Structure formats: C-alpha cells, structure tokens
Amino acid sequence: NIDLYYTSFQLRAKNTLKIIQEELKDFKEVKSAWELNERHYGALTGLNKDEMKKKLGEEKVHQFRRSWDLRPDPLDKKNQYHPINIETYKEIPLEKIPDTESLKDTYERVIKFYNKEIVEYINNKNVLISAHGNSIRALCKHLFNLDNNEITKLEIPTGNPLLIEFENSKISSCKYLDQERAKDLLVF
Q: Rounded to the nearest 5°, which phi and psi values hold at 63?
C-alpha cells in the first residue's frame, strides 16, 4: 500500500512508476521533481559508456562515474540535450539547471529535495521513489550515513526495489525485494 509516489522528470523513471502503479492498480497522483533526475553528465550527455570510453579512455570514464566531486566538462547550452532546450524543464528557473554535475552536486540537490518534501513522511507513510542510479546513490549516502569513499563503491541494481523501513526516523530494516539480484547492502 503506497501513500505517496515521487519520480524524476526523466521518462525511464516515469515509465517504471507507471508500470508499478498499473501492477498495483493504484493511480494516485505522482509528484514529479527534477531534483530526483539522474546526475547531469555534462559534455558526456548523449554518449553511451562505450562511446565515452573511446573518447576519454576507460580510466577517465571510471573516474567520472565513480568519483565524489569530479565533474565532466559542461554541456554547451546550445546542445539539444541541455535541459534548458527541453520543454519539460521550461518551468524550472534557469539558474537551477546545471550544465554538468559531480555526484556531490547530485547529492546536494537530491537531499535538499528529500529534506524539504519527503522526510516528514518516512515514519508514517509508505513512500515510493522511482529515480536513477546516481540520485538513489545520493539518497543512500544520506540515509546510511556513508562517507565520500564508501559512496563511490555503492552499486544500485537496476529494476530491483529497495525497501527501507523507518522507526523514529532511523532505519530499522532494509532489503532488496529481489534477493537473487541484490547488491551488497549495509546490514542492520
């Protein structure tokens, strides 16, 4: 029984949430928030991992993907993939839309949103967040109190819901729903 639904502005998270709601036959209103978007990879936007490796080399791509505070070069504001050129983002103030982000930047926007919009519900509501690897990693860093080194090692499996239960604003238990595809997780 889900009380509140949150998702990013990005289609894959919205589509995932749509599938979940159809399966549950629960069509409550969904709060879409750009703050839950995947990390903005700047000039690497639009490239897949193999294209990035060809352009920059495997080591540099690994650094960008896993480092805490390293940002790729900014995406040109004239690029079609820049959020300022996408209709969905027209209501977002331009100064809030990044040209590139580190995981630290992603963390700051996700946690600011979480603290403002979600944290008040964690003890008495069932909240479902459909988001992305890096936005979920950022949230896990906060919830599990991971340091900057630990977060670089945390792997979020695609399409495997993580159930986190709270008691008195503290995590009382957590587990991946599909245990066969579960990644390493902190044990409580």
A: -60, -45
pLDDT, tens only, 117-156: 999 999 999 999 999 999 999 999 999 999 998 888 888 8
48-74 pLDDT, tens per residue? Answer: 888 888 888 888 888 887 789 999 999
Task: Tell me the three state secondary structure of residue 98.
Answer: coil
E strand or H helix at 164, and its extent? strand 162-167
Q: Which residues contact 121 (CB under 8 A, 6 or more apart)?
A: 3, 4, 127
C-alpha to C-alpha distances, 63 to 6, 170, 174, nearest whole angstrom:
30, 32, 29
- Closest Cα partner for 142 from 107, 118, 167, 168? 107
154 CB neighbour count, 10 Å cutoff: 19
CA distance 1 to 67: 37
DSSP H helical segments within 48-132, as ranges? 49-56, 58-66, 103-113
